[in-house]
Structures are given as C-alpha cells and as structure tokens.
Amino acid sequence: MNKETAKDILDTIKNEYVSNPKPELDFNNNFELLCAVMLSAQTTDKRVNEVTKELFKKYPTPQILSNADITDVINIIKSIGLANNKAKNIINLSNKLVNDYNSIVPNTIEELTKLPGVGRKTANVVLGLGFNIPSMPVDTHIYRMSVRFKFIKEDDSVITAEEKLKKYIPKNRWIEAHHLLLLFGRYHCKSQNPLCKECKLKKFCIKK
Ligand code: SF4
C-alpha cells in the first residue's frame, strides 16, 4: 500500500459506486447522533432510523432521556435487537451528559470514550459527523475493506487499522474515506457474496 494507491482506490469507489458519500443514520444534533450510533450496533441504519423517530420525539434531550422509564425505552427500540443493553446505555449516557457535561456532547475522543457504552468507533463517528473533526472510525465494513485492499493484514488490530488508514489517506479525506469504504463494503463488497464479477476495484484487491 502507498498513498497513491489509496487515492486510486478512494477515487474509483467515488466515481463508480458511491457518488454521494453521506451518513445513512438520521440525526438533528450531536446528542441524537451519539444515541443513533450506539443503537446501530448489529443492526442496519434503516432500522435504527425507524425507531429513533419516535425515541427522539419523546426523549429529545439528555435531561429528558435521563429520566426515562427504561421499560418504555426498551419498548420503543425493541425491533433493533439488544434493546435491554442499548436502552440502559443511552439512559446512563444521558445521565452522565447531564451530570458531568452540562448536557453537551464532548468533542474529544478522551471525553467521549468516558461515556457509558461509548467505544472508540462510536467516538470517532461522532467526532467526524458531529464536529467535522477528521477521524477514522473502523467498523466491521471498514476493517473488511482494509484487509481486501491490503491497507492492513488480516490479524491487525482495529487500532492498527485506524493508524494505517490514517497514514495512507490524507487527513482532509478521512471523513469522506470512512463513508466511501463503509458504503462500498455495505452494498458491493459484502462480507458474504461480494459482487466481484463486475468489480472495478479488482486490481487492488486480495481476491483478484
Ligand atoms: S473484487 Fe470482490 S472482494 Fe475485491 S473489492 Fe471487488 S467486490 Fe470486493
């Protein structure tokens, strides 16, 4: 891998597959973004959007969500799976925001990862999408793409993947690169049955 190849990969994805590299989760502010990303674990953004409409209407602020009845929150989000844990996390997170952050979502990875249930990937997504701070979240799609395009080795850790992607991709493209790799992985280079036959990125890929 080198910077020129990384650029070719991103440009090809953009020109051929993902002309509009934007997030698919719906949110109106950083609190909603943070909750939506936490709810998106092991489900699709589409399903999250279906439940957050009602959730954010009923519980629009950290203050209000921190006082929610957990059974009601579980009931609203039950269709997305892991509802008990997810409800507990977003209520605890709201409590922490109210008590320690004046109900404002912090804008550093150190502070974000102190919030209940917030890992490095979620924090990086919030930094990039919420604050427009260059970041490189590595989720399952980005990791798979990084292996297939030889940014990383198959046994590299997620942190190593983040570091290597940041090394090869210029900082001003990190947020865009996240969307490009994620959406290409989600819809074309899927985990099972990737659409290899007509793929225009074959020459960069370990599966060529
Ligand atoms: S050739 Fe297949 S595995 Fe490789 S990037 Fe294209 S779709 Fe993905």
Question: Care to give the gist of this entry?
Answer:
The chain is mainly α and 208 residues long.
Characterize the structure shown:
The protein has two domains: 3-17 and 135-204, Endonuclease Iii, domain 2; 30-131, Hypothetical protein, domain 2 (Endonuclease III, domain 1), CATH 1.10.340. It contains eleven helices and no strands. The protein is elongated and about 55 Å long. It has helices spanning 3-16, 30-39, 45-58, 62-66, 70-77, 83-101, 109-112, 120-131, 140-148, 158-168, 174-187. The structure holds iron/sulfur cluster (SF4). The site of iron/sulfur cluster has 11 residues, from loops. Iron/sulfur cluster binds at residues 148, 188-189, 194-196, 199, 201-202, 205, 207.
Summarize the topology.
Elements: H1 3-16, H2 30-39, H3 45-58, H4 62-66, H5 70-77, H6 83-101, H7 109-112, H8 120-131, H9 140-148, H10 158-168, H11 174-187
Bound molecules: iron/sulfur cluster (SF4).
Residues 148, 188-189, 194-196, 199, 201-202, 205, 207 line the site of iron/sulfur cluster.
Percent helix = 55-70%
**Any idea what the shape is?**
elongated
- Helix and strand element order: HHHHHHHHHHH
Number of helices: 11
Mean pLDDT: 95
Annotation keywords:
0% strand, 58% helix, Endonuclease III, domain 1, mainly alpha, 2 domains, Endonuclease Iii, domain 2, binds iron/sulfur cluster, single chain, elongated, 208 residues
